[in-house]
Amino acid sequence: MKGMMMHRPLKIADLITFAADTYPAGEIVSVRTEGDIHRTTYKETAGRIARLAHGLKALGITESDRVATLAWNGYRHFELYYAISGIGAICHTINPRLSAEQMIYIVNHAQDRVLFVDLTFVPIVEKLRPHFPADLRIVIMTDRAHMPETTLEGVLCYEEILDGQPGEMDWPDFDEDQAAGLCYTSGTTGNPKGTLYSHRSTVLHAYDMCVTIPRVLNEGSRILPVVPLFHVNAWGLPYGAPLSGSSLIFPGGALDGKSLFDLMDREKVFSAWGVPTVWIGLMNEIRQRGRIPEGFGDIVVGGSAASRSLIEAFEKQGINVCHAWGMTEMSPLGTQCNLPPEMADLPFDQRIDRKQSQGRRIFGVDMKIVDDAGNRLPHNGTTPGHLYVRGNTITSGYYEDPEASKPVFDKEGWFCTGDIAAISPEGFLTITDRSKDLIKSGGEWISSLDLENIVMSHPGVANCAVIAVPDAKWDERPLLIVQPSDEAQPQKEEILCHLAERVAKWQVPDDVVFVDALPMTATGKVSKLTLRKQFPEAPHDA
Ligand code: ADP
């Protein structure tokens, strides 16, 4: 027997309509590419989204068309998220840090019909335009007064698309499984692969994040997504914030420690979300100024592992650190590490130990770990295995890419994350490595993440990475690459000693290479792929 309740499709547009009705004064503050600060509310934004949606229809955009964005975090990008999906089209966010080759690949693969571009990225588009589809329309995200001189032919102006359009929209109903967003992974191997989010998965993810991180997502809370709207939906914040009544503070393109500190201080940001590299920059600024930004109380850190020293530094300043893990293919949230009440009174060190783990799963994400043969492994906290997930917010295959899709699902339909992890009896997940980053030395696995964590606690180290290099005797050996902190000149021996005191002797790398800066991926993580190319073997003076 079926239940007798109404069935309304879950739709993204309903989130902004709800926010405009329920939290009309909820704010969206943006650092604009034009150079000033822009302030608006959910109520005003809902009106502009309606105008933009009418404007998109006037451009000929219809259901399932792909409309691309190449933009920083700001109110216009936010409006595009809602207007595009609201009319049943698909918002394809492009990461401006991708290589030219990757960008050309994804715009053509997605067959984008319109590309919305921030002023900053106009030069990139000018260069790549000949390689994009001939009928691609280009819109510059500014007003008439700020339209730049450009070699691009027939470009449109964002504000003119809204001009004269009605500020209300009767959002169409469609199946909740209708595609809404498209985001390509940065493609560390092979071509980038597209994750195609649906209205249903996006709304469920918004619910999930609100119930899982209520400390941050609540009415009146002020949240800074440093994580870009061009990468995995800024971790879901453009949807979770309006649903919970939180305000959004968008930083534009200024993501250095000083700019972030000033913005957070001025806007009384409570919670800021981003990858570890960003927080290293902010912590340097906090140390220099000898205080934290006013109102600051929380960070959500993920995208790559947050080191113990980073977590400790923020917690010592009274800032709650929530370590989170996820993937583009997972919308992205998988786990978050806010501690349960029974752990609140643990001694400081033990709390930090716990917070180093990636935390417990969010509702709707099932997790299993398996051995090489696919047999389930126990959740005892010490046995690592290949991590698989399934759930309503997880991809069921890559967009128009059956070949790439096949190998990532097991017989039971679970998605292979490519991460190696252990799960404790209390449900805490600890990622030990990406499977392709694991180091196998003399038949024993060495976790690069464990080593990096320890090295990061050395005061002379700003950032580091451990990669495998081939070794005649041991197959592979770990090589440590260190970016020293400003003015520090740590010695090799000193760093290796620091490690030797904390891990088994055979795990200690044979050598340390110092670099001025570690190469980063398009999503702000240390690029081990580049490092492996740079250091295909141990340096000869080892
Ligand atoms: P990209 O590869 O394009 O940067 P993702 O952001 O989807 O894309 O990367 C997901 C991967 O990032 C995860 O599979 C995991 O290896 C890593 N990751 C994400 N969050 C964490 C975390 N908190 N700790 C360790 N690794 C993480």
Automatic annotation (TrEMBL):
PROSITE patterns from the UniProt entry: AMP_BINDING (PS00455)
A matching Pfam family: AMP-binding
EC number(s) per entry: 6.2.1.44
SUPFAM superfamilies per the UniProt record, alphabetical: Acetyl-CoA synthetase-like
Record's keyword terms, sorted: Fatty acid metabolism, Ligase, Lipid metabolism
Catalytic reactions on record: 3-(methylsulfanyl)propanoate + ATP + CoA = 3-(methylsulfanyl)propanoyl-CoA + AMP + diphosphate
Gene Ontology MF: a single term: ligase activity
Domain (AMP-binding enzyme C-terminal) ranges: 451-525
Keyword match Transit peptide: no
Root EC class: ligase
AMP-dependent synthetase/ligase domain residues: 22-399
GO biological process terms, semicolon-separated: fatty acid metabolic process
Presence of keyword Transmembrane helix: no
Family: Belongs to the ATP-dependent AMP-binding enzyme family.
Name by which UniProt lists this protein: 3-methylmercaptopropionyl-CoA ligase
Organism: Roseibium aggregatum
